[in-house]
């Protein structure tokens, strides 16, 4: 039994070393912190410097990923998302003193993203159009060299992980009436290192406007209508 376990451990170690060489980074390398509820789902428990992540078209989820990096001193940029406002970012807890918004990068969005990635550690972008394989490869190399995290609203090859949401459910303060105060949803994360996605029920926003974990066993509530 010892021989079998030893051989298995050696094989795992060899494969891991090979994977790290191919990826140009260690799987247990330090990561940028994220909110606790998201850390439970992400490989490594945070955002890996030099890696790209795809995020579903949810402004709230993307901003939630910027909360802890900005609060712990990392500058963040958002490129090509004109509808994303500073007020919404602040409500979720993003430190606005470390947030740069570039609503319209123009047709050269990839060049703008690459330039920003040279100087800021976290960059979120919504691609305006497709990018060539060579252009993506150059940007990926730059991300690894600079240790920049890229969050992409859209498709992106070789992504470290993909985050998506489903089953949203709003609730309010009254029984069938009142203001919509919180939204429960399921966040799913698939990665290159796990055979199956990880999922968790979360409140985004919760009563305070932030992201917090919710229990799967939480009883469903009847949908509430907004009162103007």
Describe this structure in words.
- There is one protein chain.
- A hairpin with an 8-residue loop joins strand 8 (198-203) and strand 9.
- The chain is of the alpha/beta class and 228 residues long.
- It is 30% helix and 23% strand.
- The model is unreliable at 1-6, 20-25 and 217-228 (pLDDT under 50).
- The radius of gyration is 19 Å and the shape is globular.
- It has a nine-stranded mixed β-sheet with strand order 3-2-4-5-1-6-7-8-9, sandwiched between helices.
**How would you name the oligomeric state of the polypeptide chains in this document?**
single chain
Detail the poorly predicted runs. 1-6, 20-25, 217-228
What structural class is derived from the secondary structure elements?
Answer: alpha/beta
**Relative helix content:** 25-40%
**What is the number of helical segments per DSSP (H or I, 4+ residues)?**
6
Order of helices and strands: HHEHEHEHEHEEEEE
What does the overall shape look like?
globular
Alpha-carbon Rg, integer: 19 Å
User: Strand content of the residues, in percent?
Assistant: 15-25%
Q: Cα distance, first to last residue?
A: 69 Å
Number of strands: 9
Whole-number mean pLDDT:
84
Strand order of the largest sheet: 3-2-4-5-1-6-7-8-9
Largest sheet: 9 strands, mixed
């Amino acid at each position: 039994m010892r021989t079998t376990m030893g051989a298995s451990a050696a094989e795992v170690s060899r494969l891991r070393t090979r994977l790290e060489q191919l990826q140009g980074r260690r799987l247990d390398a330090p990561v940028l912190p994220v909110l606790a509820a998201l850390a439970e789902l992400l490989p490594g428990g945070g955002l890996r410097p030099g890696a790209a992540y795809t995020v579903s078209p949810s402004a709230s989820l993307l901003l939630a990923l910027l909360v802890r990096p900005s609060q712990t001193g990392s500058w963040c940029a958002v490129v090509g998302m004109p509808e994303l406002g500073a007020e919404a970012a602040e409500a979720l807890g993003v430190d606005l003193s470390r947030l740069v918004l570039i609503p319209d990068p123009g047709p050269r969005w990839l060049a703008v993203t690459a330039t920003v990635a040279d100087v800021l550690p976290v960059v979120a972008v919504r691609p305006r159009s497709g990018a060539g394989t060579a252009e993506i490869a150059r940007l990926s190399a730059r991300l690894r060299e600079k240790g920049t995290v890229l969050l992409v609203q859209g498709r992106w090859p070789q992504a470290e992980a993909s985050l998506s949401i489903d089953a949203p459910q709003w609730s309010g303060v009254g029984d069938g009436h009142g203001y919509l105060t919180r939204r429960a949803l399921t966040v799913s994360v698939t990665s290159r290192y796990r055979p199956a996605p990880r999922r968790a029920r979360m409140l985004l926003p919760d009563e305070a406007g932030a992201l917090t974990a919710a229990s799967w066993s939480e009883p469903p509530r009847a949908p509430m209508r907004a009162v103007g």
